[in-house]
Write a structure and sequence with these properties.
- The chain folds into four domains: about 220 residues, 3-Layer(aba) Sandwich (Rossmann fold), CATH 3.40.50; about 190 residues, Glycogen Phosphorylase B (Rossmann fold); about 130 residues; about 110 residues, Transferase(Phosphotransferase), domain 1, CATH 1.10.510.
- About 40% of the residues lie in helices and about 20% in strands.
- The protein is built from 25 helices and 27 strands.
- The strands form five sheets. Strands 15, 16, 17, 18, 19, 20, 21 and 22 form an eight-stranded antiparallel β-sheet that branches. A seven-stranded parallel β-sheet has the order 3-2-1-4-5-6-7, sandwiched between helices. The protein has a seven-stranded parallel β-sheet with strand order 10-11-9-8-12-13-14, with helices on both faces.
- The longest helix has 26 residues.
Amino acid sequence: MSRLSLLLYTLLIYLLRLPMLLFFLWRSKADPAYRQRVAERFAWQPVPATAVGGIVVHAVSMGEVVAATPLIEQLLQQYPDLPITVTCTTPTGSARIQTTFGTRVHHCYLPFDTPGANRRFLAKFSPQLIVLLETELWPNLIRQASAQHMPVVLVNARLSAKSARGYRRFSALVQPMLRQLSQILTQDEASRRRFSALLGPLSSTLIPGTSRQKIQSAGNLKFDMQHKADLVQQATELKRRWGARPVWVAGSTHAGEDEILLQAFAQVLIAQPDALLILVPRHPDRFTQVSKLVADAGLSQAQRSLQQAVTAQTQVLLGDTMGELMLWYQLADLVFIGGSLIARGGHNPLEPMSLAKPIQSGPHVFNFATVFQWLGKRSAVVFVDSAAALAQSTIDLLQDANQRQQLAKRGFSLYQQHGGATQRTIQQLLQLLPSEGDIRRLKRDGADEIWYDPVLVEAGGFTKPSQSFFDPHCWLQFDAVIGQSTGRNTVWFVQAKQQRWVLRHYYRGGLIGKLNKDRFLKVPVPQSRAMAEFQLLQQMHQLGLPVPRPVAALFSTGKISYRADILLELVDGSLDLAKLLRQQALSPAQWQQIGAMIRRFHDAQIYHSDLNCHNILQGPDGKFWLIDFDKCGQRTGEHWKEQTLARLQRSLHKEAGLAADKGQSWHVTSTEWQLLKQGYNERSE
């Protein structure tokens, strides 16, 4: 059913592409931006190398961009060398992204949610992490990213009771999509419960390999809103020009609501003739229509887009520009939240709350039900349900400064109380990014791509890596090769100042390896042999597992194939288990220690494709390590765990036979294997 649902959904998206393009063309009559950058809707645009391999943050429109701004700023600060791409789907969101971030981020539209467009998008950007805002759930994008092992996180997620009922009707499509998300961070506890119910009782509640909950309440990012530095200065200057007159702002209004507001304002003017209404429609394509409504109501108006001056005779300022709503809120003596007098569900009250402004609202607030419930309990909002009630409320509040001040104070206190969502969200995202300490950097070098840990590179005395960094002949020239391992393929041990590393080239095995030694069919960079192992090793380091630290990885590409290399920290003075067992017997405690170590990896759902006694090392301090994670990864389920243990047991038997053939000692009996299993089984969950 889930496959059929996804197929039907995909077919619907394909069928809707033409109507959507026609809709954009129609909307472009009011806003020409709707007919621009069409190539981005299909992911046909070129992507600069500087935008590849970073983080993609998707915020559908301007409101979500505002919410995401503190989070994006934190990511830019935390990862100054990592490319951040911010996507949206509307021109208003695009304008806000470009105004707020400029060239500090790469920006484009998110393409239509078709398999082809998503393949192109993911192949071009190769993101380490995709962050979706609020309710931006796109089944094909999430499915393809999950298949390519790209973590996708839904942050600032909100789910009303009404939306949850709708999603349940399409559970065959929704449930698999939610399971493919790496994590869901909700705005509030009610949304967390609804997402948990949608995910289903049979699904794991933990992120694989961790003790962290997959669905957590992290708080609302909009409680951490950032204001422009000159916002107060701009508002003060406009106030000076307009004089000391009361200002009533109606923000993000909709069709059917403006008429009620204008009717109420006519009554307000009778009691407060010098009042100024700043009317800000939600959608740009309604600016002309709302201007006509104001004129038909017999009210004098100034249009912000035409830079018309507000005089003593101006009764309505039409806020028909984009990106200035916060300025109007800063100017306001009283704020009405639009979309609430009609069954639209209301808009975000946090913006005026963050500016300590008194708030009015209609009764329809299900989009922000939790926040309005908090406001209601604290008597920090005035609810109205008609033009008459709205007019009387406005008159009372404009004439009572003390009442306005108390409303504003209670709302601002609530806003401050619920801050910190950005920091909580960042802490979760950092654990999903395959990096620790300093950032993981991406470098383009012609057709090559190099990932590296800058801390270790600098410790080795290098300013930056290059392709020669992975060439053993270059290390030989510097007399930096300190040894090599000659099994099926040579592995080099090199030294750079105080650091000792293992340099390994990736070779093909089996019969095909005799014909094609080291070229692999081209895949997206994160899926390549070296980069996949690099990411997995960093992830295991975050989990505290005993594995070598990855230093650098090389993806060297041709037209249809690639070669790969990896540089790892050397476990200095170590000996692999096969050599160790030829020299001495291990104590019962050591065998149990090996079993407990393997169990740690299995508890983290880490699958090792070649668990054998050559890939288990003992360091000089007696600690055991696991190495060689090529073609390994995280797996769900349990069945494979016994299979990997059986592979290790076969490896011990094989080495016993080889030792016997050579007349060498081999210090293993069936008793030792039982000790290993005992350590494995007794490890605490």
